[in-house]
Backbone:
RNA sequence: GGUUCACUAGCUCAGUUGGCAGAGCACCUGACUUUUAAUCAGGGUGUCCCGGGUUCAAAUCCCGGGUGAGCCA
């Protein structure tokens, strides 16, 4: 703790010594700072509001003048000057004011007036201590600029940088405008699972997590697409979900591991309808938060009211003179790509090469809002083929500033075609594309029940917010962007801490114990038994036996030891492989089901609810095979 | 993953050729009853990101690591 924090704790103690709670309670707020400025802007000269108002907020500046002082109070709406005066407050209250620090949160009761310098000000008649701030805020003039602290301690960023607050309020308003737009059009907002066993609906690597009770690896969703289409099958007709998706990929100014998308699906519509909706949603959002459809993004003027539409092939043709869709063979397309210097991979077909040419030569030139249509089927496994040309799909992507903002298409509703597309994706996966779609059998089943002709659309909310708030980085539109843990914290092995590993509570209350043996055994007899640690090399159920398991054990010698044990009702053979057990190894061989059993594996047996319960003695895997027990 | 840059007081930043760790704001003491980046006088509060190395001597040079930002893939 540094000097500044010590001083603040001393002041906290001083409040307590005066009988004032440094962390206060409920406070009735009649005005926000902005309300005061608006409502009392007419005050002139010696005039003072007749009304006594209350405001609450954080002290952002204190300008002491001895027996009278100015301060600045900040609340959600902005800042307002407040005036503490000894004559008004009295000795005791003014001495309390002297204990206030920048950053403290107080509630103020007072009258409004205009100072000689012309600033609307609240004269403090009384104030309540609401929260003592124990840490110094950043400097008033430069504020907080360190990007790392801004992201890690967003609360400080929000206190110090009003434009950050504005950005996040804009984000909320954008999302609200989208909901309003869709709700007005009879869409149903739904929620679908984040956790699942198939990560489908997009080309991306998923995050893997684990369900302990089910002992099941699960994925965090990479898209909401397939579940939403299931709901269209179910008859919802118009659905959308605005929510978080997770992609286990690189991070940069445009990508965060978790981000927000909206996907929407409309039965009996096609991709052209969804293009109109895309345009409508974006225009509506811009109008709501900017009041206009024109804005500057990072110094470039963007006009949303003027949207271009062009097919991918035409766009590539315009840029390079090459007509990839005229190609009859992959070789032709490869030659074209080579000619214009577009790299491609071996596994690409004509469509893949066209897409590569688009990404290489066209994408970043699409500064003004542009719909690209007619994506190759090869790269569009969930989109319906174009009726005239099966090589391409009825799909669009919406670009602004060279960046993909939205993606939509007429949904593929032919289950047989869909299954073939999934199989193609599996081939891509085997050919090394670990982002290729997984087969989702149940989705095929759903399509087999019948998906109406449907148009679907996805929009990257974070990117839209970036555009409309002129934010250079996605981290500037995420309240808490993903950050690496600082040295010393985090970076723990989460699996080691997972609840499954936490000690299981076991109920021993019903255990019945067999009476102890009365008769003693002498040490000599005892020491004749050779107990050893053994490792289970293999374990299988003995054929035709309900009870017996056959263990192949490493007892530390070169020879495998085989022991049969009647414990199948307690253990499945596969769960025992690799375990370290205890066995007596100097018993004479005994034939069981025609197999020699050489020794006995030691179990712990007790009665519980008059049932016999059994636990194999399993010991630490650190104990080597053959270790002798004394 | 590669590469460049940054990391010094609570914040924003200086720190020369390797030679006692600096400024402004904030903070502390005092003055001041309409100031507003208040002013005036006095006071420096530090794991120079971490760990090694070179050196009589390292914030500074070398090596390794951390976090962040940017560029490339």
Residues:
């Amino acid at each position: 703790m540094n000097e500044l924090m010590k001083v603040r704790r001393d002041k906290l103690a001083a409040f307590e010594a005066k009988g004032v709670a440094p962390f206060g309670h409920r406070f009735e707020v009649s005005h926000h700072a902005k309300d005061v400025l608006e409502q009392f802007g007419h005050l002139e000269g010696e005039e003072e509001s007749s009304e006594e108002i209350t405001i609450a907020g954080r002290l952002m500046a204190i300008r002491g003048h001895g027996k009278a002082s100015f301060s600045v109070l900040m609340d959600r709406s902005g800042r307002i000057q407040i005036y503490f005066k000894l004559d008004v407050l009295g000795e005791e209250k003014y001495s309390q004011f002297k204990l206030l620090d920048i950053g403290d949160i107080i509630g103020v009761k007072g009258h409004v007036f205009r100072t000689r310098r012309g600033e609307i000000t609240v004269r403090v008649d009384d104030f309540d201590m609401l929260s003592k701030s124990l840490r110094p805020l950043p400097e008033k003039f430069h504020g907080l600029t360190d990007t790392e602290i801004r992201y890690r301690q967003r609360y400080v960023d929000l206190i110090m940088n009003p434009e950050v607050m504005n950005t996040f309020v804009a984000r909320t308003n954008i999302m609200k405008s989208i909901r309003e737009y869709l709700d007005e059009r009879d869409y149903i907002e739904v929620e679908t699972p984040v956790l699942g066993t198939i990560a489908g609906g997009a080309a991306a690597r998923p995050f893997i997590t684990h369900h302990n009770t089910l002992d099941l690896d699960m994925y965090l969703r990479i898209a909401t697409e397939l579940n939403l289409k299931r709901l269209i099958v179910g008859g919802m007709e118009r659905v959308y979900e605005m929510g978080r998706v997770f992609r286990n990929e690189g991070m940069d100014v445009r990508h965060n591991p978790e981000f927000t998308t909206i996907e929407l699906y409309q039965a009996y519509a096609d991709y052209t309808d969804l293009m109109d909706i895309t345009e409508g949603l974006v225009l509506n959002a811009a109008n709501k938060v900017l009041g206009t459809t024109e804005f500057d993004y990072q110094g470039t003027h963007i006009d949303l009211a003027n949207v271009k539409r062009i097919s991918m092939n035409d766009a590539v043709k315009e840029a390079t003179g090459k007509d990839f869709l005229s190609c009859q063979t992959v070789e032709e397309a490869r030659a074209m790509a080579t000619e214009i210097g577009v790299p491609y991979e071996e596994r690409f077909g004509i469509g893949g090469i066209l897409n590569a040419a688009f990404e290489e030569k066209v994408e970043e030139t699409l500064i003004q809002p542009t719909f690209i249509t007619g994506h190759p089927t090869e790269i569009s496994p969930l989109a319906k083929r174009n009726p005239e040309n099966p090589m391409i799909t009825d799909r669009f992507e919406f670009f602004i500033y060279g960046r993909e903002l939205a993606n939509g298409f007429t949904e593929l509703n032919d289950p047989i075609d869909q299954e073939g597309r999934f199989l193609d994706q599996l081939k891509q996966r085997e050919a090394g594309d670990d982002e290729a779609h997984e087969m989702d059998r149940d989705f095929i089943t759903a399509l087999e029940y019948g998906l109406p002709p449907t148009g679907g659309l996805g929009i990257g909310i974070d990117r839209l917010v970036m555009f409309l708030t002129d934010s250079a980085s996605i981290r500037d539109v995420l309240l808490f962007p993903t950050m690496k843990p600082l040295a010393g914290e985090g970076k723990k092995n989460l699996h080691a801490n997972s609840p499954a590993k936490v000690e299981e509570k076991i109920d021993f209350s019903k255990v019945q114990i067999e009476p102890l043996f009365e008769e003693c055994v002498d040490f000599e007899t005892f020491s004749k038994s050779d107990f050893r640690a053994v490792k289970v090399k293999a374990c299988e159920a003995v054929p035709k036996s309900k009870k017996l398991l056959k263990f192949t054990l490493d007892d530390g010698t070169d020879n495998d030891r085989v022991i049969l044990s009647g414990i199948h009702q307690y253990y499945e053979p596969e769960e025992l492989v690799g375990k370290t057990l205890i066995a007596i190894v100097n018993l004479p061989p005994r034939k069981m089901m025609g197999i020699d059993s050489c020794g006995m594996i030691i179990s712990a047996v007790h009665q519980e609810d008059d049932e016999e319960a059994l636990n194999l003695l399993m010991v630490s895997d650190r104990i080597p095979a053959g270790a002798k027990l004394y």
